[in-house]
Design brief:
Layout lengths: L2 E7 L2 H7 L3 H15 L2 E8 L9 H11 L7 E4 L2 H4 L3 H13 L3 E4 L11 H32 L11 E5 L5 E5 L3 H12 L5 H10 L6 H7 L8 E4 L8 E4 L8 H11 L31 E6 L5 E6 L7 E3 H13 L1 E3 L1 H49 L4 H44 L1 H7 L2 H11 L5 E3 L2 E3 L5 H6 E3 L11 H4 L15
Helix pairs in contact: 7-8, 7-10, 12-13
Length: about 500
């Protein structure tokens, strides 16, 4: 009596779409063995695709045969597409089973493979499902490519978006709760002042977890500015089309970020992500002349210490807190002469007062021009009512002069607004300059670096483990004096500076 193993397979899709049943297959195979007098020794069920033989149940079946845990000389299944949908793999597996003394047989498509001509029919039975799979995959691929050309995102939504289904049943992407974080990331990268991994860590802190490689790919994807990439295929070249989804950032911002990533826009300063290293990127190594970096190390007591140090190959290593305090002390010696500050303040007022008086004449001229065009329109309207001008001619005149009047009015109003904003900006800067040391010490690391970038013309140098101030910005040098004699002058606390009266602080000033 021959001993048979039953192999029953159906994929999840086939079971849902075509109603294939594992139980029905097993019933038919048992009936076949009963009629032919075969002894059923094992039965293996599979809910897996037949594109390859990397299937859990089939691997167990093969392992049992190789270790002789199961003794059988026949493997039966309903059709050849239950066995495999890959011609090359199928021939290889048939040969492997034959070496183990097992014959493969489909009860609905029986073939005596000892007859050479029957292998032609075997090739047909195996190729037909493979062709069907290939055709289905191609149809799906072409359909998705067509949808991409229409501007639809056809994959899992990228970070910052989520997949939804419209009332028409179409899958689309819309911004989700991570969209503001992605917008922040692009804005920070566009400045050219931050390392991409520091921005990634910032996103992680905001709750959007992302790995290094994945984040690099994310920020290079134009989907965030409303574009869809279509890869090259056959004779069609790679292209980018406008997407149907809502962009998170502008195209201009996306392009600035790509320039930074490509190295077309050089990093302005070394970025810092820790408050312990405000001077990182602004200190020059006293031994080799390279910029110092910073890091922390935990001692035997478990306390973490922070150091400014040079790169590998240079032994420079200095305590971060000592250098930070030393620079802060030097900054406290910066004093601004009240007469100079008052003069600067008066100059601002005089400059904008002269601009205002000059603009008064320009404003009068604009009003004259606007009134002249308005009279022309009124005359044209009266002529139309009197019948000496057709309605079409009146519309043409109106269409010509109304945009001119709107442009004159908007340009003048916009200029006034811009001047007012610029004056507030200068006044705010003056208030910060007067209290520079307090602003520096009270600010976060990004605020401190803003102060450093504003006042330094070259990086700081170190002598005898102390900070030595380099060249200062020329404008800053003109209005500032560095003198230890002023240390005794009464200092205002950070809280006092941040609560200046409305008389002292211009409208719109937001303390750092």
């Amino acid at each position: 009596m021959r001993k048979a193993i039953l192999y029953i397979r159906v994929s999840t899709d086939e079971q849902a779409d075509k109603g294939y049943s594992l139980a029905h297959q097993e019933e038919r195979l048992n009936k076949f063995c009963e009629i032919n007098g075969y002894q059923v020794v094992e039965s293996y069920r599979e809910d897996y695709s037949a594109k390859s033989f990397n299937r859990p149940s089939f691997n167990k079946l093969l392992e049992a045969l190789k270790k002789k845990k199961t003794k059988a000389d026949l493997l039966v299944f309903t059709k050849w597409d239950r066995f495999s949908r890959n011609t090359a793999d199928a021939y290889g597996m048939i040969a492997t089973l034959e070496r183990l003394g097992v014959e493969s047989q489909a009860i609905e498509q029986p073939l005596d493979l000892s007859i050479p001509e029957n292998k032609i029919m075997l090739a047909f039975y195996l190729a037909a499902p493979e062709v069907e799979n290939h055709r289905r995959s191609l149809n799906v691929f072409v359909g998705m490519r067509r949808a991409k050309k229409e501007g639809r995102w056809m994959a899992t939504a990228p970070r910052g978006y989520k997949n939804i289904t419209t009332e028409e049943g179409k899958r689309v992407i819309v911004p989700n709760e991570d969209a503001p974080t992605m917008r922040w990331a692009f804005n920070q990268l566009a400045t050219g002042q931050y390392n991409i991994d520091e921005i990634r860590k910032g996103c992680n802190e905001k709750g959007m977890k992302c790995g290094k490689d994945n984040f690099w790919q994310i920020v290079k994807n134009p989907v965030y500015c409303g574009k869809i990439q279509i890869p090259a295929w056959k004779d069609e070249e790679f292209t980018i089309v406008k997407g149907l989804h809502e962009p998170i950032i502008s195209e201009a911002l996306f392009q600035r970020v790509q320039d930074v990533l490509a190295g077309k826009k050089r990093l302005a300063y070394s970025a810092v992500s820790r408050n312990e290293f405000p001077l990182r990127g602004f200190l020059v190594c006293p031994k080799c002349g390279r910029n110092l970096t910073g890091s922390g190390s935990t001692g035997g007591s478990g306390i973490k210490h922070f150091y400014y140090h040079c790169i590998k190959g240079c032994a420079t290593r200095l305590k971060a807190f000592d250098l930070n305090d030393d620079f802060s002390d030097k900054l406290s010696t910066v004093v601004f002469d009240s007469d100079i500050i008052n003069l600067y303040d008066k100059i601002i007022d005089d400059v904008f007062k002269s601009k205002t008086s000059g603009k008064s004449l320009a404003k009068q001229q604009i009003q004259i021009e606007v009134q002249k065009h308005r009279e022309r329109l009124n005359n044209a309207q009266q002529m139309m009512l009197d019948g000496t001008l057709s309605p079409d001619e009146y519309r043409d005149i109106k269409k010509r002069y109304e945009p001119i009047m709107d442009s004159l009015i908007k340009d003048h109003m916009g200029s006034d607004d811009m001047d007012a904003d610029f004056k507030r900006y200068l006044k705010k800067g003056l208030c910060v300059v007067k209290n520079l040391n307090v602003v520096y010490n009270a600010g976060q690391v990004k605020d401190r670096q803003s102060v450093l970038r504003s006042i330094l013309k070259e990086n700081l140098r170190i002598e005898n483990d102390r900070v030595r101030t380099g060249k200062l910005n020329e404008t800053f040098s003109l209005i500032a004096r560095i003198d230890g004699a002023y240390r005794a002058e009464k200092k205002r606390t950070a809280s006092q500076i941040l609560t200046l009266s409305a008389r002292e602080v211009p409208s719109g000033f937001e303390p750092l």
